[in-house]
Amino acid sequence: MSALVEIRDLWIEGRSDETWSPIINGASLSLNKGEVLGLIGESGAGKSTLGLAAMGFTRDGVRISKGTVLFDGVDLTLASASKKRELLGKRIAYVAQSAAASFNPAHKLMDQHTEGPVQHGVMSRAESVKDGIELYRRLRLPNPEEIGFRYPHQVSGGQLQRAMTAMAMSCRPDLIIFDEPTTALDVTTQIEVLASIRDIVEQFDTAAIYITHDLAVVAQMADRIKVLLKGDEVEDADTRTMLTHPKEDYTKSLWAVRAFERPQKPAVHTSATPVLSVQNVSAAYGKIAVLHDVSFDIHQGRTVAVVGESGSGKSTTARCITGLLPPSQGVIQFDGQSLPANYKQRNKDQLRQAQMIYQMADTALNPRKTVGEIIGRPVQFYMGLSGKQKRRRVEELLDEIEMPAAQYIDRLPSELSGGQKQRIGIARALAAEPKFIICDEVTSALDQLVAEGILKLLARLQDDLKLSYMFITHDLATVKAIADEVVVMKDGEVVEQGPKQDMFAPPHHPYTDLLLSSVPEMDPDWLTNLLNERGVDNIGDAAVDKMS
Amino acid sequence: MSTLPTLMLLLLGVAAGGWVLRFAGQKATGNAPVFRDMPFAVAFGYILGAGLLAFSVWYYFQPTLTEAGTPNAGVVFFRWAVQFFIVATIAAFLFRALGRTVGTQFSKKMFRQMPLTASFGVLVVIVYAFTAIFAAWLAPHGQEAIFAKVNVLPGGNAATGGDPLHPLGTDQIGRDLLSRLIYGAQNTVGIAFVTTCLAFFLGGSLGFLAATLQGWLDQVLSRAVDVLMAIPSLIFALLLMTIASAWAGSERWLLTVYMILIIAVIDSTRVFRLARAVGLNIVVMDYIEAAKLRGEGMTYLIFKEILPNATAPLLAEFGLRFCFVFLTIASLSFLGVGIQPPLADWGTMVRDSAQFINFAAFSPLTAALPLLAAGAIALLTVGVNFVVDWMLHRSSGLKE
User: Fold this and answer.
1) Cα(B358)–Cα(B355) distance, rounded to whole angstroms?
2) Per-residue pLDDT tens digits for A383-397
3) Considering the entire predicted model, what is its pTM?
4) Residues 171-210 of A with CB under 8 A from B
5) In this predicted complex, what is the ipTM?
6) Structural domains in chain B?
7) A351 — contact with chain B (CB < 8 Å)?
């Protein structure tokens, strides 16, 4: 049997600054009907480009310079526009990373769902609506009869991602390309989406290319894994072999990332004054209460991880601490002193002592300022240094975050990689010489290798400078790596808190248990076992509903 | 044959030509992607363009005099336009080539990425700026100097009613038109520039302030701007100018100051809207939150954090706004309430010689008199717009 997709010696180039530079260097792959291939690599490895090329498509400013992409015997690099129109959507479908950005907000889900089949003449509109409802049911969306008649903003992120998968399925394609479909989702939601994607791909015997940077996810989904590094293929093997016996050093380093864990610190004296103490804080946006009676302490040199799904109130707690959202009840104490509720009433020193590192380094650094200006401003503002002294201090700080000053001090944020930007964010916080730093999902937008580097840096800085961290995250691997104490939040309340070793050892609060068990593991049978354990109809939403 | 059937027939011919072009192209090149994926509309466009080009060439070489001895005005104006277009293209091309070889690394790179339209626009802006700044040295005569010969035609050829002393002719009271055009650049463009800067300072700072503080200040400012924008701007300006001329009395220069203020305030409303909209997108960024939490003051926030990120859209708007202000001033002068005589101003010049346009069919040179000043206005507007288009394209290309 000949392969469904056959890519031979494909070279792809991207245009930047008047020249063409290579993105993919001679990749080859073949995919049989019903097979799932996982493509993994860091950002910039060319995995999305290769995935799109399998549809014969390139983004603007990108071209295929050499090689062939055979889909069912048709060479897509040479096919005419009308021939491609016939194939795309009907026999090849695409599921994008951000369903929220990919759906047209002005049309109902079902109207967008039926567009493909009707255009391609596969089904009439009425048939397609019926089929859509059936697909929604198989993808375990709640209220399959009604959900299609809502607008994209009326359903949640995980549901939208499944609706998009249903849309891709609407013409029963032979090939679906999933471009990081679960990266933007919480662990608990991710499971639902993963399980439903896997089931439906199996049911219809569809071939799929699954692009992701999360190894544990790809282990659940793929039959075969291909590892890419900077446009070169590193390794290609079937999933079990790849997991147990990786050959190349790069693959091994990817596998090893999750092993980083800090040693447990001795318990704090109960008499010590905490650096930061959140006491019975409640807060509301307008009339909608989002935090209910939240209390926890953070001691010097300690990391408290605040864990929960999106909407659980983690970031709102941070906003209360920084004073952006004055709490409606309760107080925030710093070194035993109550802080004014609103940041505008706090003095310069109070502001200096508590700094923040943001999730999206892209929006946290002013794109028009150089690294030197970004880090230099707090140095000047709080420490009153200027001229040469200021520059020397900035260079020291750049040293601290392991970025050579001579090379980086005059660069703009756009000339840095994601991990480097995040390091600049850290340096800006350090420039204020604070006692306490809030880290808001600082690693969630980064690749695993880069994220590990950031975590190690933060750990070292904590040891050197006796910093205290409040670490907001939804990733439990990160918690395991860096936290001393854990606070689990749900719906604006603290459901459980305590030292890390207690949290990761049973017995758990049922919600903590759900979170813990939802973290994908490298074992390819993990998802199957988990679903069996929970009972197939009982995952995610349902499980949470039952408990609460 | 009447016009409509002829037009229909021509369209049909073009449509058939387009089909033939595509078909022949496919056969001749063995189905190359260019012809294979060519939509019919594109083929239609090629044939239509080729037809128009052929017609222009044919029309260009028609005689300028009819058999009866009267001038064929259409051909004359068409020739002028084509000649100007060719000269402008060559000038833009040479200018860009110059920019690519001379200058700093940065400017060389900029010129390499520049389309021809943008280099033409930059050239126009430079020439106008140069003329405006050095008007006193460039102009052969003073702007108020009156000569004996009135209504001398442009061209400088005595046989066609010109005078070598006045290459562009003189107006009804004998003032040299070339000198007045050059001084006009100083007056009209200079005043427009000052007005636009003022409008931007006013609208920009208030807009950013509204975006940063929000709340009641934003409400008050925005509603006030709404009220001002609800009144048609030219009518409003006319009304205010009438009042201002009563205040100014015989002090002519005071009226010019009033005009600058009035137009600046009216145009600042548009700038306010833009600055506020751009500012609102920027103030939600985390780096603004970081600066607020650092304890930075309002001035730092607006000028050091927000403004650098808003320069691209604001600069583009500056170009457009400058054109509008410039046209408003010319319109006001045309209506007699703008820049006051004897100061040279293009709007006034168009008004003074406007009736000559009626002679276009009999004497193209006479009709060229009002077209000179009007052309000066049009050329700057087009040039600035080319530059703005290019800047907008660049800034959007960089961001999204």
Assistant:
1) 6
2) 888 888 899 999 989
3) 0.74
4) none
5) 0.75
6) 3-60 (no CATH), 177-399 (1.10.3720.10)
7) yes
